[in-house]
Design a protein that fits this description.
278 residues; alpha/beta; Rossmann fold; 10 helices; globular; binds 5,10-Methenyltetrahydrofolate; binds magnesium ion; methionine biosynthesis; amino-acid biosynthesis; histidine biosynthesis; EC 1.5.1.5
């Protein structure tokens, strides 16, 4: 039977470490505060925004939220970001994605001061990751690395297949696994012989955004399976990109959804906020 990789427990462990560190840094007069911007009232986004604010309160950093109406113009949003860039009491800026269709996400991300880019989405942060220089790491892939490390999964020399090539998960995930000296393959929706390729993976990381897409035919016996997907099924039940019930018996370790990668994303966001104080 597969060992469950408990993201809920590990994220709690990280938040507790950060809480202690923040208390220490506070004694030296250091503080941090996160500004969260949400445009429109998407209920899923509201849940995530609330979780982020709760996490800030838990570890002892400030947060302020800007809930803007759906009709907000790109100019108005850019003006708010400029204001927060200038504001000394704000150390991190997060613009909840996705944004309404009339706003250019790329422009918005580019407007954030890279020194406050706690999501790690700015091109300067992405470039720094690529060449191995200092910058904020994107929270979800950084969370996956922490899950693997804290579960004792050896990465060096291992065959890692990443399914998905997005700018916020697949691509930065590949860079981080390379840093850990894994041998990395990035697969995606157009990859030929995807099943055969995935079956070679010692570590399979899935972020394709298709519910229960990965079945037992994609997984080698003993593989470590990390599921980045999150989907709300009818009846509000959550599931990932991996069909957990059929893959779990094959895997040596596997993340559940919920309780896997999701909570780690928030823990690593908190780590990036604390990084502004260090
Ligand atoms: N600028 C920006 N930064 C983000 O980091 C960002 C974003 N936009 N837009 C949306 C996605 C999604 N995301 C998640 C965070 C936590 C959970 C999480 O905590 N999930 C829980 C379940 C939560 C639930 O019940 O829905 C779990 O998997 O156990 C999931 C997803 C951050 N995102
Ligand atoms: Mg893709």
């Amino acid at each position: 039977m597969a060992k469950l990789v408990d993201g809920k427990r590990i994220s709690q462990e990280i938040k507790d470490e950060l809480k202690a560190e923040v208390a220490d840094l506070a004694q030296q007069g250091k503080t941090a505060s996160l500004a969260v911007i949400q445009v429109g009232g998407d209920p899923a986004s509201s849940v995530y925004v609330r979780n982020k604010k709760n996490a800030c309160a838990y570890i002892g950093i400030g947060s302020e939220s800007y809930e803007l109406p759906e009709e907000t113009t790109e100019e108005e949003l850019l003006a708010l970001i400029q204001e927060l860039n200038q504001k000394e009491e704000v150390h991190g800026i997060l613009v909840q994605l996705p944004l309404p269709a009339h706003i250019d996400e790329e422009k918005v991300i580019l407007a954030i001061d890279p020194s406050k880019d706690v999501d790690g989405f700015h091109p300067q942060s992405a470039g720094a990751l690529m060449i191995g220089s200092k910058g904020f790491l994107p929270c979800t892939p950084a969370g996956v690395i922490q899950l693997l490390k804290r579960s004792g999964v050896e990465m060096e020399g291992k065959n890692c297949v990443i399914v998905g090539r997005s700018n916020i998960v697949g691509k930065p995930m590949a860079m981080l696994m390379l840093r850990e000296n894994a041998t990395v393959t990035v697969a995606h929706s157009r990859t030929k012989n995807l099943k055969e390729l995935c079956k070679q993976a010692d570590i399979l990381i899935v972020a394709i955004g298709k519910p229960k897409f990965i079945t037992e035919e994609y997984v080698k016996e003993g593989a470590v399976v990390i599921d980045v997907g999150i989907h709300r099924l009818e009846g509000k039940k959550l599931c990932g990109d991996v069909d957990f019930d059929v893959v779990e018996p094959l895997a040596s370790a596997i993340t559940p959804v919920p309780g896997g990668v999701g909570p780690m994303t928030i823990a690593m966001l908190m780590n990036n906020c604390v990084e502004t104080m260090r």
